[in-house]
Design brief:
A six-stranded mixed β-sheet has the order 7-4-6-5-9-8, with no helix packed on it. 21% of the residues lie in helices and 29% in strands. It is built from eight helices and 26 strands. The protein binds adenosine monophosphate (AMP) and magnesium ion.
């Protein structure tokens, strides 16, 4: 566990700065702002080999120990020449006196009227600054004839043009991609500092829940939320800690939350935050930590508790399986990214034309499951996936995006553009 508490600002102070704040119905944008202000990134570093760094959060800037490229080199296959010696209006004849290939530089010195055969990536021979591509040159024995019209300095990559010694190759906070691993290797760096993995404890609440493998009695259902959460947390690159199912009982809930807070940086529960059940969730939070808000102006997912238990941040997600995924994607994801020290990773919506009218009332944000595709006419369109009941996981599984209908938006007509967040960009 980090020595520093994950979240150090008192929540009351964070929400106290907001005017017209109503913890029982917080607009989506305000909820995101509260989460961002409240969550303090961890700073607990470990050194890992490049291959183990994929998807991890870079903890310190990677500075280049070398110039990249390390030498002026040729960008094309052709001939290295002295640019200022080329004749402006008539062809220039030059003697080819050697070759410089990638990894095998030309060691000699050229005199006026001489050229060196070069291949892409080859170090530029001393004194030569220009490359003439092989396709336009006429070869006559050991000489070449270069047509007029060449630019001095062309087709040459300059030493340090990508990075100079001491320059920032990758800034801290980056969630490392395959390209980043290649870049680090190109600098000759074998291991880099990353933030330790976040530990996220999660559990389901509900007397009706059974785990897979158990027999169902009348009125019982299988717990699916823990599996969807496990998948989303794993993709986010955190260490998921599955605490199982907790009964609908304040003492059991308090025990689970206390235990979770001792072992994790963040806690996620599902269920038990809707009207009726919410009261004891909230009272346990008040006792063990703080609660910032418990309801958001959104659909699905209206009941959503956010706060702190001990040093861990806490999300009390709704019970409905679709609402769990939506609230995770649009709230918990950003909070966990911030907590793990990652730079903000905004979701990039795709604008698409919706195929049918959508009912929507201003004053809350609505999220619908959609299938995004490009028609033969090249236009990007989205179809919402039939019934949007928040317990219907099958439509979530069939969808490839979430259509976001914003707080202030009213009804949408067929053919109107809407914002769609592709699942690929979520986690
Ligand atoms: P709650 O917020 O606890 O009232 O739950 C709302 C709905 O979601 C109820 O129909 C619950 O049975 C269902 N639900 C709650 N937790 C889960 C879960 N872990 N897996 C599947 N369904 C759940
Ligand atoms: Mg319940």
């Amino acid at each position: 566990m980090s020595e520093r508490p994950a979240s150090s600002r008192p929540l009351a102070e964070v929400v106290g700065c907001l005017s017209d704040f109503d913890p029982a119905s917080v607009p989506v944008a305000q909820a995101s702002a509260i989460i961002e202000r409240f969550v303090t990134p961890i700073d607990d570093i470990e050194q890992v080999a490049i291959r183990d760094a994929l998807g991890r959060v870079l903890a310190r800037d990677v500075l280049s120990p070398i110039d990249v490229p390390a030498h002026d080199n040729s960008a094309m296959d052709g001939y290295a020449v002295h640019g200022a010696s080329l004749l402006a209006d008539t062809p220039t004849r030059l003697a080819v006196v050697g070759r410089s290939f990638a990894g095998r530089p030309f060691a000699g010195i050229t005199r006026p009227g001489e050229a060196v055969r070069v291949m892409t990536g080859a170090v530029m021979p001393a004194g030569l600054d220009t490359v003439v591509i092989q396709e336009i040159v006429t070869v006559e024995g050991d000489s070449i004839v270069v047509p007029p019209g060449q630019q001095a300095g062309q087709h040459r990559r300059r030493r340090g043009e990508d990075l100079v010694v001491g320059g920032t190759a990758i800034a801290a906070g980056r969630v490392l991609t395959p390209a980043d691993l290649g870049l680090v290797a190109s600098l000759g760096i074998a291991a880099i500092p990353v933030q330790r993995r976040l530990r996220v404890a999660f559990f389901s609440t509900g007397d009706e829940l059974r785990s897979v493998g158990e027999a169902l009695a009348e009125g019982e259902i299988y717990d699916s939320n823990r599996y969807a959460l496990h998948g989303m947390l794993t993709r986010l690159g955190v260490e998921p800690i599955d605490l199982g199912v907790v009964r609908d009982d304040p003492i059991a809930l308090e025990e689970a939350m206390t235990r979770a807070a001792t072992m994790a940086d963040a806690i996620i529960s599902s269920g038990g935050v809707s009207v009726g059940e919410a009261d004891f969730t909230r009272s346990v939070m008040d006792k063990l930590g703080e609660v910032a808000f418990w309801s958001i102006a959104m659909r699905p997912g209206r009941p959503l508790a956010f706060g702190r238990i001990g040093d861990a941040i806490y999300f009390g997600l709704p019970g409905n399986p679709v609402a769990v995924m939506i609230t995770f994607y649009f709230f918990a994801r950003a909070a966990l990214c911030r907590l793990m020290g990652a730079l903000p990773t905004p979701l990039f919506p795709v604008r698409a034309l919706v195929d049918a009218p959508l009912r929507k009332r201003p004053g809350r944000t609505e999220y619908q499951r959609g299938v995004l595709g490009r028609g033969e006419d090249g236009v990007v369109r989205v179809r919402v996936t039939g019934p949007q009941g928040s317990g219907m996981l099958r439509s979530m599984s069939q969808a490839n995006c979430i259509v976001v209908l914003h707080h202030e938006q009213g009804p949408i007509a067929a053919g109107d553009p809407v914002d769609c967040v592709p699942f690929d960009g979520l986690v």
